[in-house]
Amino acid sequence: MKRTETTEGQENEGLMIKRIQNGTVIDHIAAGEALNVVKILGITGTTSETLSIATNVPSKQMEKKDIVKLNNRELSKEEVDRIALISPHATINIIRNYKVCEKKGVEIPDLVEGLVKCPNPGCITNTNEPIVSRFYVTEKGLRCAYCDWVIGHDITTYII
Amino acid sequence: MSFEAAIARLGGTSLSVGSVEACSMAKGETLADTIRVVSGYADAIVIRHPKEGAARLAAQFATVPVINAGDGAGQHPSQTLLDLYTIRQSMKLDGINVALVGDLRYGRTAHSLASALSLYGARLHLVSPKGLELPASLKSELVEKGMTISDHDSLQEIIPELDVIYVTRIQRERFPDSASYFNVASSYRITPELLGSARKHAIVLHPLPRVDEIDPRVDVLPHAKYFDQSRNGVPVRMAMLQQVMQ
């Protein structure tokens, strides 16, 4: 069996995803949310990134978790924090030359811009105005900075 | 019209762009562009717009003060200031019992007034037809602020407790047919008979225009304060305009 490296850089056997040389590993994603993480990062089938996704991987901390590996792309702080909206316990590993060079948690941002569409059909953001959507992150969910509509759950449904 | 009266009384002049349908926006111009242009023509902008959040967008692009004169089913803060002023002419604002009656879902005057009353420890009694209730998000926000809120099917049961009866228009287009509208609207109508059990000092307010919500026979009762309320719109808006342009 081929020997591969875990996301934390430890040697292990039998992982389905092989290690990456450079890029980002998003670990400890809540089980089942990997595809939404990919969506939140704006990665679609038509973008150029090489990525690997593992879902429902056994985890000591979380019982089950998802993992996303992105080749040759280091996520910015803003991108990382967006992930916190759907998976607040995710960890980010920046990989350079097969080594974990940086490891960080995600922080829930105070404001998200251009990420989700306001569900309120009467909101001014759902017109042809030259603005991007803007939501404040509150305890109850995302609050539209224009019309005050609150997205309390299913945030990924409204990702632009 | 009351904003135009207010600016005239302050010695200023107003430029009206008319309705959204009648101005450059009808040709496809964005609100953002309209606001940028009008910012060069005026010292302040008063905006009423059918979309929620329009005034916030306008403030983002304007280089002069912007006053929200009503945004869709969102807010109507200038109406609220004159509502509070009118109530205060009759009683103290603290701890009063206020019934909001009618279309509380789309009624922006009710939204803004409810939020403002939460600052004064008022108790809210909500009386609205099914489907036109106060938005759940606003209601829970008010409860979190410590407001006591109760829902009622009819005004009859709570009339003796009330200090203020704030009536809003129930719009015909919210109902599938005229019969359903008339059926609902008539059950929320304010009549002299209904007010027979009201407190002596209780007042009836309405942001106007009214249609069938208040029986014209109520107009002559001491409870009827809606025309005073309308008149108060001028000095209150004069004060607002003066404040933002100082």
Describe this structure in words.
The complex is a heterodimer of chains A (160) and B (246). With 160 residues, chain A is mainly β. Chain A folds into two domains: 3-105, Aspartate carbamoyltransferase regulatory subunit, N-terminal domain (Alpha-Beta Plaits); 111-158, Aspartate carbamoyltransferase regulatory subunit, C-terminal domain (SH3 type barrels), CATH 2.30.30. Chain A is built from two helices and eleven strands; from the N terminus they run E-E-E-H-E-E-H-E-E-E-E-E-E. In chain A, the strands form three sheets. Chain A has a five-stranded antiparallel β-sheet with strand order 4-5-3-6-7, covered by helices on one side. In chain A, strands 8-9-10-11 form a four-stranded antiparallel β-sheet, with no helix packed on it. Chain A is elongated, with a radius of gyration of 17 Å. Chain B has two domains: 2-72, 3-Layer(aba) Sandwich (Rossmann fold); 77-230, Rossmann fold (3-Layer(aba) Sandwich). In chain B, the strands form two sheets. In chain B, strands 5-4-3-6-7 form a five-stranded parallel β-sheet. The longest helix of chain B has 20 residues, at 226-245. Classes of the chains: A mainly beta (160), B alpha/beta (246). Chains A and B meet through loops of A and helix 3 of B.
Write the layout of secondary structure elements.
The complex is a heterodimer of chains A (160) and B (246).
Chain A: E1 3-5, E2 11-13, E3 23-30, H1 34-40, E4 51-59, E5 63-71, H2 77-84, E6 91-96, E7 99-105, E8 111-113, E9 134-138, E10 141-144, E11 150-151
Antiparallel strand pairs in A: 1-2, 3-5, 3-6, 4-5, 6-7, 8-9, 9-10, 10-11
Chain B: H1 2-9, H2 31-39, E1 45-49, H3 54-61, E2 66-71, H4 77-90, E3 97-101, H5 108-117, E4 123-127, H6 136-144, E5 148-152, E6 164-167, H7 178-187, E7 203-205, H8 226-245
Parallel strand pairs in B: 1-2, 3-4, 3-6, 4-5, 6-7
Helix pairs in contact in B: 1-8, 2-3, 4-5, 4-8
